[in-house]
Amino acid sequence: MTISMYHASAPRLANALTNLSALLSKAQAHVQAKKIDPAAIIDFRLYPDMLSFKRQIQIASDTCKGVMARLAGVEIPAYEDTEQSFEDLQARIAKTIAFIESFTPAQIDGTEDKDIVTKRGDTETHYKGMQFLLGHALPNVYFHVSMAYSILRHNGVEVGKRDYLGKI
Question: In sequence order, what DSSP letters do the residues of 15-71 get, joined into one string?
Fold first, then answer.
């Protein structure tokens, strides 16, 4: 039995972002209940050379929209990375989920061997579709969602494994 590239990507990415949105809601409730400045969490880093909470969310979003666009062969929408509040971050997640949900299986299935090239600075990395999805994109999304989760736990937000996993 084979699994479709669509079912290995779109539902999983949307689920990760839906769970991230729920984590954000808990974080927002936490700062309101404790009367904490939201920036204390939004700009928090686990270590000085690590990315902030909001960057973890932005990168998870960017990776999700990037994988869907690359597999479907469409332009990746550009987001400005200007989010400064929980509401801004929620809006970004909602926009990304809507983008993911705009694709059909016909646009994504059959891309297992599609040539995918990513660029970071002057460095190009070449993948085949399946390798890109399973070996790069999904682990990257889960990494950044995990870092956002860890930042919340570190700051006393009452979240647990069920919040991270959500309703699978």
Answer: HHHHHHHHHHHHHHHHHHHHT--THHHHT--SSTTSPPHHHHHHHHHHHHHHHHHHH
The two tokens of residue 10 are 């779109």
CA distance 93 to 161: 20
**pTM greater than the 0.85 cutoff:** yes
Q: Domains in the chain: how many in total?
A: 1
DSSP 122: T
Phi-psi map region of 36: left, alpha, beta (phi>0 left; psi -120 to 50 alpha): beta
**CATH code assigned at 11:** 1.20.120.450
Share of the chain above pLDDT 70, in %: 99
- CB atoms under 10 Å from CB of 123, counted, come to 7
Phi and psi torsions of 100, nearest 5°:
-60, -45
**Which residues are paired to 116 by β-bridges?**
127
**Range of 32's domain?**
5-165
pLDDT band at 80 (very low <50, low <70, confident <90, very high): very high
